[in-house]
Design goal:
The chain is of the alpha+beta class. It contains 13 helices and 17 strands. It has an eight-stranded antiparallel beta sheet with strand order 13-10-12-11-15-16-14-17. A five-stranded antiparallel beta sheet has the order 3-4-8-6-7. It has a two-stranded parallel ribbon with strand order 1-2. Strand 6 and strand 7 form a beta hairpin. The longest helix is centred in the middle third of the chain and has 14 residues.
Length: 381
């Protein structure tokens, strides 16, 4: 494992590489594409934090828990609520700031606040030729040409290796509560979540899971803010959703925090055997897709826009779902299944041409996390 301790050392390493490099942050995702292993964990530390400006800049290898700790002292947080994959994937390591941005890791709050990429203000990275590239800044602004901040978010290290990221942070709300609705079917739950999110009551989490209490389906609607406001909005949601005839209960702050940590980290599937898939779709299609999967278990997040699906080992979920507006990502499986099915949904011909053009521009030698997001042709290096 090569572990450069500076951006310059990383640039030299990439420039002199004569074969593929497998780049990782904290090693919590277990992807490990082919090539010599390179860790950015040596590039660690918060380089700038201005609480009054709601801005933080940190090196890519900085542990997320360190950032959370520093922000919490000022009553602030990462607004996009990144998932900790160690729970579901049963891995070790420590999630890193750069890894979160590179994979655009975004939790339940995405439905209200946006994804990780929406809070990234600027990036520094080393491309596949060993050149250092900087884009964006420390405040929100428009840029011309490539929006590399957005481009690097979700590229999984295939276009460049992040070395530093600046993000916008937000205050921690005074309190939170979750309205729990029991005994709704999947379709009824999606309808209830859609109504709640379309209301003026500022729902910051909407999930539906049949395994929260191991007995009956539970639909979760989270509200955050000042205590009096949360109480008022919870009561208003109860009135709005009374026609569902669901049994309702309110989980106050401590229980609400535990519930959403479980939803965020897919904790309900931690001890269950089988492959785990992440399906992004139109919320209106969630119930139909879940039923078509023939899965042994699932739950909805993002109001139905995200489905976590547990399948028997080696099952091809994409073949079962057929064509739909969205994509299915294989998150947990053994190496053989990953190789056979691929981690990411195959792209359309047009998108693949665009992706290939970007890879040719930023990694012309094809050495960064090679094969992770696209198939490797026989005979390639």
């Amino acid at each position: 494992m090569m572990k450069p301790d500076s951006e310059a050392a990383l640039a030299d390493l990439i420039k002199s590489a004569n074969g593929p490099l497998s780049v990782e942050g904290g090693g919590t995702r277990g992807m490990a594409p082919e090539g010599n292993a390179v860790s950015v964990a040596g590039l660690s530390g918060i380089t700038l934090y201005e609480p009054g400006a709601l801005t933080l800049v940190a090196q890519a290898g900085t542990p997320v828990e360190e950032i959370d700790r520093v922000l919490a002292k000022e009553g602030q947080r990462l607004a996009f609520e990144p998932m900790d994959h160690r729970v579901l994937l049963r891995t070790q390591g420590r999630p890193t700031f750069g890894g979160v941005i590179a994979a655009n890791v975004s939790g339940p709050r995405r439905i209200q606040g946006g994804a990780a990429r929406d809070y990234a203000l600027g990036v520094r990275f080393v491309d596949g030729t060993g050149e250092v590239v900087k884009n964006g800044g420390r405040v929100m602004k428009n840029v011309t040409g490539y929006d590399l901040v957005k481009l690097m978010s979700g590229s999984f290290g295939t276009l460049g290796v992040l070395t530093e990221v600046s993000v916008k942070v937000l205050p921690i709300p005074e309190t939170q509560a979750t309205l729990m609705l029991r005994n709704l079917s999947d379709a009824q739950a999606v309808g209830a979540m859609s109504r709640a999110m379309a209301s003026p009551y500022e729902v910051t989490g909407a999930a539906h899971c049949a395994k929260i209490d191991k007995q009956t389906p539970v639909t979760l609607l989270r509200l955050e803010g000042f205590e009096a406001s949360v109480k008022y909005r919870i009561d208003a949601l109860k009135d709005l959703l009374a026609e569902t005839q669901a049994d309702m209960e309110v989980a106050c702050r401590d229980m609400s925090e535990r519930l959403w940590e479980s939803v965020r980290d897919v904790s309900e599937m931690e001890e269950l055997e089988g492959d785990v898939w992440r399906v992004s779709c139109k919320p209106s299609e969630a119930a139909t897709l879940a039923a078509a999967s023939g899965a042994s278990g699932w739950y909805f997040d993002w109001g139905g826009g995200l489905i976590w699906v547990r399948m028997p080992r080696g099952s091809d979920l994409r073949a079962r779902l057929g064509a739909f507006e969205g994509h299915a990502t294989l998150v947990r499986a053994d190496r053989e299944t990953r190789q056979a099915l691929g981690v990411f949904q195959p792209q359309s011909a047009g998108l693949e041409r665009l992706s290939a053009g970007l890879r040719a521009r930023f990694d012309p030698r094809g050495i960064l996390n090679r094969g992770l997001m696209e198939p490797v042709s026989a005979g390639e290096m």
